[in-house]
Design brief:
Elements (H helix, E strand, L loop, with lengths): L2 H6 L3 H15 L4 E3 L9 E14 L3 E14 L2 E12 L10 H22 L7 E6 L4
Helix pairs in contact: 2-3
Length: about 140
């Protein structure tokens, strides 16, 4: 993730984790967000692997977020997926900030993650979400 994105969009990771938990709740999937869940046997690790932010309100936005999702049951990895989403900001995109467009992208990714989890074998009653810092 570029330093300018990390410096400007300081709430991107926490917003993303909270949005995943909220989306799961809407779909009756028990997930809780936790920064200290690595010791939990049933967990989902979500890692932002890349964030791209080109353009601005005047030239037009192009934002993308790439993630890797790892699912563990009883401490053993039992699922992995990579998902990418891109956005130009949608209707009124020219009037949105870069962070707002990135939030729009992570909102869609949150739905993608929950749908993927529901398509897998039945998860344990409660699964922890671990936000993992971006590697770039």
């Amino acid at each position: 993730m570029a330093d300018r994105i990390a410096n400007e969009c300081t709430e991107l990771g926490s917003h993303f984790a909270n949005t995943i938990a909220a989306e799961a709740k809407k779909r009756n999937l028990a997930l809780i967000s936790s920064a200290d869940a690595a010791s939990q046997p049933n967990r989902v690790e979500v890692m932002i692997t890349d964030v791209r932010s080109y353009g601005n309100a005047f030239t037009g936005h192009y934002k993308s977020v790439d993630i890797q999702v790892n699912r563990y049951t009883n401490g053993q990895p039992d699922g992995e997926t990579h998902i990418s989403r891109r956005s130009t900001g949608g209707i009124g995109g020219a009037f949105k900030s870069s962070c707002s467009v990135l939030d729009r992208t992570t909102n869609t990714l949150s739905s993608d993650i929950v749908k993927w989890l529901q398509s897998q074998a039945t998860p344990a009653a409660t699964t922890e979400i671990i936000p993992v810092p971006a590697t770039h």
